[in-house]
Structure formats: structure tokens, C-alpha cells
Input
Amino acid sequence: MGFRFDIVATTGSARAGTLHTPHGAISTPVFAPVGTQATVKAVLPRDLKEMGASLILANTYHLHLRPGDELIQSLGGLHQFMAWDGPILTDSGGFQVFSLAELRQITDEGVAFRSHIDGTLYHFTPEYAMQIQHNLGADIIMAFDECAEPDQREVATAAMHRTHAWARRCVEYHYHHGNTEKQALFGIIQGGIFPDLRAESVRYIANLDLPGYAIGGLAVGESRADRLATLDATVPLMPEDRPRYLMGIGHAEDLVEAVRRGVDIFDCVLPTREARHGAALTRYGRLNMGNLRFASDAEPIETGCECYTCTHFSRAYVRHMVKAKEILSHQLLSIHNLYFLLRLIHNLRAAILEGPETFEQYTHDFLQDYRSKESNTELA
Output
């Protein structure tokens, strides 16, 4: 029981580690498939295990609204409810509230918002976000934060200070009412794309002495250059002995660049969302599998890929499923896309363990291949 983070090897700023949780050890860096509604869309838990997933993210906001966190608790908690016996992370709901701009009102006390499902009025406070996550029973739970537009300094500053106050309230509630042996509370660093704000936020959140820390408020509209600059200004200031989680990042290039900078944990809806749009993620960029050029193509989506889809089906068959709007197209493309990112993260970790020369060669070659075709990929 309990939590421990061990750094196994480093190469420059990149780290390979092991995060021990009550539901098993997580080798880092790690990519967590997103199971918003207690399911990774179109993919069975069995298939997630087979492709090497070790951590899944579920959503506090959505599960509170439907079917209800108290119901899930009464049925044995989230692990039993969704038949996943590995580690689970629940986000705080802060990003979902951010996305409901026209339906919410934020005060220092918390957030009032209307359900996107039926318009019911809800109130989230830091304490209530903790209570919901206690009921869900995930291994890693997140402090309630305010996500704001990243390039508006005044807005980002106000959101950061509110995030700090809410984090302290989350800590007080969790350590008085939760089980710190079964659930690890991670704090979230905010501050937009402004280095001085990020530095201030790291200092405040790190001072709470939590088991892990997340970088929030990125992948919400800023440029890739601003995102990388923000990571350059933030990650080196974060505690070295705790896991570092970059929220909502899933593009292959971004994963490589963030691992290079010392990030350990990632999550994103990208692989399954792209699948539902008929797109495949590959080492050479994004493929629109509905394209006519794949109509009689007997090759797999990606040569050398060992996922279930690529070892059993041709591009022609996958295209047929996409064009026929068969549900199987979502499943086959989700399996491939998730496997692609999980394999990338696995290979990055292996390269870190091999040493600087191997890691630099692997990342150089991957990014060269990925960027060489990126401008030629066909958008769905």
C-alpha cells in the first residue's frame, strides 16, 4: 500500500522512474489513455492491458454528473465499476469547468455551473471536488484548480492565485477526511505562458509537500513554441524527487519534447478522438484512413506495428470500415493509435535506460521521421 516514486535513470533532463501505487507500479514516463466516462472509448480493458497501458484517467466532473460518484462508491469504487485493476487517476474537473465558459460563474469560494446534460445547477468547491474523488477511489487525485486563457496575464494571475488558495483547501480536506495511503493528492501549477507566474506557482504548490505535481493550463490554445518555452521555464523548478505530470498533452512530437525536459506522466483524448474521425497516428504523421488511395492497399496502417489492428487488418479493410461508418472502425483505429503512443513512451523509457547516446539518437530519428512527413499528411 502507499506511494513511492523512484528515479531509475536519467539522461540529461529526461528521467525513467517507477511510481508505486496501491494498484500496481507504473513505469515512467507513462501515457495514460483517457477514460472520461469510466471507459476508454471503443476499447476494452482487456485490450488496454494487452497493449501495455498501466494507468487510466477518468473524469471527476462527468462521473459526478452521471452516474454519480456515490453510486460508484456503493458499487465498490471506480476500479470495480469499470473492471480495471490497475492504477487510475481522476482529474479535478477544473478543465471541464473552464470549457463551460457560458454556463459557469467563478468566485473565491468555488464554481457554480450548469450541467451540459440537463442544465441542473451544481456548485463545486475544492472540498467537494475532494469528496467526489474520495468516493470514486482513484489512486491519484487532483487538486481543484482554475484553468484560464494562457496568454492573458491579468486573467492568468487571478486564476493562479485562486488555484493556490483552492489547493491549500484541498490539502486540508484530503488530509483530514481522506486516506493518504490509498489516494495520492497531486497539486496543479498554473500561470499561463508567463515564466514569472509559473515560477511563483511552482514555489507555492511545491511548498505544500505533495506526492506529485502537475503542469496545468497548457494545450488550451497556446502555440507549440509558447508551450515548450513554458515547460523550459517550469520543469527545472519542480521537485526532482516527485513525479511531474503534464496534463492534456498527446501529440507525439509534444511527448518527445516533454520527456526530453523531464516530464513523467501524460494523458490526452487525442488517440481515441482521432480514431473517431477516421485518422491513424503513425511515425510519419497522421493518415486520413478514409482516403481513396487506401481503397485497395493490402499493407497494415503502419509497417512494423505490432498492435492487434496492424497484425490482422489491411489499410483497405480499415478504410472500408471508416467509409461504411462501422463502429469497428473506431475500435480498430483507437487500438492502433493508443498502441502507437504507448509504444513511443515505452521506447523513450528504454532509450533513457540505455544512456545519453541512445536517447539522443532515438529522439533525433523519431522527430526527423515525424516532421519529414508532417506537412504532407492528409487531414480528415
